[in-house]
Structures are given as structure tokens and as C-alpha cells.
């Protein structure tokens, strides 16, 4: 099994231990950890996997394999920037999101589109900036309409 861990390069402190535990548990279950290979959530998860004797793969956005964090066993250089998210998702049998922002959101969307299991650690949706959280369907429609009207008013000062 290859399990992708996705999340922000800047890991909120409250998620560092969570990411490390995710990595550890992936390794303890004999799976390979795949991530973006940089810092933050990716480094914490890779550290956990290495502590448990696991194998880690980093799909790097840049042109230099030495950009990978020190817990990455196999660094794959793509030179693709954020487009490398497709490779992370495509190479994973399942994805686990630990915190994150827009890059993580893109990986979640890609995973769902590719019909991969996507697991989000509780509390993570609050870490994705720009998302409006609704209580239910009624609230979602109400918030959508309010935001559309607000946006229109900003565009048309006479409204």
C-alpha cells in the first residue's frame, strides 16, 4: 500500500504530533508514505514513518532532490510546482489530510475526482483558509446567496 499524507508546508503546532503519528501508523501497518517531500505536515509525517522503520517518498515541486526533508528516502524531482499534487494523489492508494490550505484542498479534490479514499483528520477543515462552513443545506444556500449579493454590491457601488 502507498498512503499519501497531504497538508501544509507550514504545519500548525497543534497538528505536528498528529502528522507524526499518522506517519508512524502508516509505517507500522507496512505501507509506504508518499508526500510532497518538503517541511511542515510532510516532514512531520515522514519523521513518524522513519521512526517506525517505514519507507518515505517525496514528490518534490522543484528541480533539486536536496530540497526534500531529511526523512525522505526516495526524492522524486518534478519541476512542476503545485502540479506535482496530481502525482502525489495518483501515486497514492488513499490520502490522509492533516491541516493545510489551498494546495491541500486541490489534493483533496483530485483524490475525490480520482475516486481515492480521502480521510481528513478532525479539525482540518478549519485550517483551510477561504472555506465557508455551513451548518446544513439550508444554511449553505443562505450563505451562498448572501455572499453572491455581497460580492455584487462590491462590484456595483450603486447597488
SSE layout and pairing:
Layout: E1 2-6, H1 13-28, E2 32-35, H2 41-51, E3 56-60, E4 74-77, H3 85-91, E5 94-97, H4 102-113, E6 118-120, H5 137-155
Parallel strand pairs: 1-2, 1-5, 2-3, 3-4, 5-6
Helix pairs in contact: 1-2, 3-4
How does the helix and strand content classify structurally?
alpha/beta
User: What is the approximate shape?
Assistant: elongated
Q: Indicate the low-confidence ranges by residue numbers.
A: none
Rg over C-alpha atoms, rounded to the nearest angstrom: 18 Å
Q: Write the CATH fold name of the largest domain.
A: Rossmann fold
Number of beta-strand segments:
6
Report strand order across the widest sheet.
4-3-2-1-5-6
Our estimate of the beta-strand percent is 15-25%
| End-to-end separation | 56 Å
CATH class of the largest domain: Alpha Beta
The SSE order reads: EHEHEEHEHEH
Count of the domains: 2
Give the mean pLDDT.
85
In the CATH hierarchy, what is the architecture of the largest domain at level 2?
3-Layer(aba) Sandwich
Helix content percent band: 40-55%
Number of helices: 5
Major sheet size, sense and barrel closure: 6 strands, parallel
Amino acid at each position: 500500500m502507498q498512503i499519501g499524507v497531504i497538508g501544509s508546508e507550514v504545519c500548525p503546532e497543534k497538528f505536528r504530533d498528529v502528522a507524526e503519528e499518522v506517519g508512524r501508523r502508516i509505517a507500522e501497518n507496512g505501507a509506504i508514505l508518499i508526500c510532497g517531500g518538503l517541511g511542515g505536515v510532510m516532514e512531520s509525517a515522514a519523521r513518524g514513518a522513519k521512526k517506525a522503520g517505514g519507507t518515505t517518498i517525496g514528490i518534490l515541486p522543484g528541480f533539486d532532490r536536496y530540497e526534500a526533508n531529511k526523512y525522505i528516502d526516495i526524492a522524486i524531482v518534478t519541476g512542476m510546482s503545485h502540479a506535482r499534487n496530481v502525482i502525489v494523489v495518483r501515486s497514492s492508494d488513499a490520502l490522509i489530510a492533516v491541516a493545510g490550505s489551498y494546495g491541500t484542498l486541490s489534493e483533496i479534490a483530485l483524490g475525490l475526482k480520482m475516486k481515492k479514499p480521502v480521510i481528513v483528520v478532525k479539525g482540518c477543515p478549519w485550517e483551510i483558509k477561504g472555506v465557508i462552513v455551513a451548518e446544513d443545506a439550508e444554511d449553505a444556500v443562505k450563505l451562498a446567496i448572501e455572499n453572491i449579493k455581497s460580492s455584487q454590491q462590491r462590484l456595483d457601488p450603486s447597488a
